[in-house]
Each structure stands twice: as structure tokens, then as C-alpha cells.
Amino acid sequence: MKLNVASVTSAKKIQIFAATGGKELSSELPLLVFLHGAGMDHTVWNLQTRYFAYHGYSVLAIDFPGHGRSDGTLLQSIEQMADWIPELIDAAVEISGKDGVSGSNSKQASLVGHSMGALVALECASRYPELLSSICLLGVSAKMPVHPVLLEAAANNDPLAYDLVTSWGHGTTGHFGKTPVPGMSLIGGGRALLSSAPQGTLGVGLAACNAYQNGLTAAGKVDCSTLCLMGSEDKMTPPKQGEKLAAEITNAKTHLIQDCGHMMMLEKSDQTLQALKAHLSST
Questions:
Q1: Helices marked H in the chain — which ranges?
Q2: Mean pLDDT (whole number) for 168-195
Q3: Crossing angle for the helix pair 148-155 and 201-211, nearest 10 degrees?
Q4: Which are the contacts of 264, defined by CB distance < 8 A and separation ≥ 6?
Q5: Rg (CA), the chain
């Protein structure tokens, strides 16, 4: 579906694409918003969104502005992206028929973010606590430094960047074909996704992650129910960094998925879904 969402850089509204898991948004159901990582789009959530859409949630798996099938220019920082999320929630409230009264429970949402999207969810929760009932942070750490070689390759739209991200981003499951769906190549699929994205998206996203320094401060301001979900083989955001971040959040739980890299929603889709279900059902 398409949502008309105001931009944080201008008053003009742009069309944002969001997958809904095969169900229409409903004002009677809690809103669950999925936020993808750098250079990616809504498709990375296909194995989780459909479940929640058919089990009591209104689901939006978005393409950030300038990504995938969404219009608009790329947002340049984690802070800009976090400030844009309330506009997205307002658009979802409007289209689902909710009242949109500021501060009402009907306007609250839960955010599920991966990597760059996890930083966005974290920063948003610290800035707009009244809007969020919970956050789920997948593949997260307070800081996400990016290797200079990767930053340069991504900025130049060099295919080397796609190889590096897919290689570093997957654990044993991705590298040795132990995928949950027979015949699926996580390495090949990841590279195809990154290379098909609009030029510049991966570079801008990685640069935003690299520049973000507010993670621990933001964590100290988060008071909603929080899950930090980590992969034991994650080279991009090692589990110890996720645990360090969670320790700064008042109401945070952690969950470690064994034999899993950074792309847990694809490598270990069932385990990721079970962890999200347990967290959201307790919120």
C-alpha cells in the first residue's frame, strides 16, 4: 500500500510504500511497524510480517524514503529518520480511521527495527515516548562503526560493498546453505537486493550508522518495553555490544539466537518470530 507521509525536510507529502502482510490496516488492532536496515527494503521482513498480520496486528513493513518503492530523498542521519517516524504513524492513524488525538492510546505503535532500523527505533523511543508501546531491536549496538573500505565502496556504488555486507552480515547458516526455505540463497538474495536498490541508499545508510553517537544516551531515556535480539555469530553488531546497550534501558530484555549472524530475520526466521511473539504478547 502507499501512504502519504510528510517529510521532515519539507512540508510536502511523499508516497511511502509499506507492506501490510496481506491484510488491511484496522483501527481496532495494535500497530506494528517494521524498519529495515541500510540499503534494504520491506522484503527482508516477509517471513515475520505475514504472521503478525494474521494474528491480531495492523502491520506496516516500510521502505524508508528513497528506498525500494518509496518516493522522496534519502534521510541523511539516524536522528532525521527518528523524527520522521511520528509522521509515518500519523499517516497510518489517518488511513486506518483512528482518531489521531495527540497522546491517545490509539495512536501508539510498536517498532521492530533491524540494524540501521534498530538505531532509528531506539532514537525514536527516546524522543517520542508517548508514541511507542514497545520496541524490538535486532542486530543492535550503541555505536555501529563501519570499516572505511566498506564506507568508500558503498559511497561509490561499488559492487564490492554488496559483497562485503552480505559476507559480514551472515553467519554459518547463510554461508553454507542451511536456510529455513529450501533452495533459498541468502548470500545471493542479499546481494541482489542491495544491487537493485536506488543508487546511494546503502552508502547513505551506512554513513548514518557510522556517524551515530547517541546510542547510550538514548537508551537511558527509553522507558517502554524493549527487546534486544542478537545473533551469536554477528560480526557487525557483536552480542556483547547488544547486551551493553540493553543494560542502559530500564525495561529491556535480551535474547540470543545461536548459530546466527546479523541477518537473523532471514537466517533464523522461526527463532526470530518466536522471540518477537513472546515479547509483543507480554507488552
A1: 46-53, 78-96, 116-127, 148-155, 159-169, 172-175, 186-196, 201-211, 215-221, 239-246, 264-267, 269-281
A2: 86
A3: 150
A4: 138, 139, 229, 230, 231, 234, 257, 271, 272
A5: 17
Q: Which triple of cell numbers denotes residue 109?
A: 505503535
* Class level of CATH domain 2-144+213-281: alpha beta
Q: Categorize the per-residue pLDDT at 93 as very low, low, confident or very high, splitting at 50, 70 and 90.
A: confident
* Paired sense of beta strands 13-19 and 132-138, if any: unpaired
φ, ψ for residue 45 (rounded to 5)?
Answer: -100, 10
Please count the other Cβ atoms lying within 10 Å of the Cβ belonging to residue 122.
29
Using alpha carbons, list the distances in angstroms from residue 164 to 192, 233, 262.
Answer: 13, 16, 13
Pairs from 181-184 (Cβ < 8 Å, separation ≥ 24): none
Q: 190, 248 in Cβ contact below 8 A?
A: no
Q: Residue 42: which of 15, 23, 70, 14 has the closest Cα?
A: 70
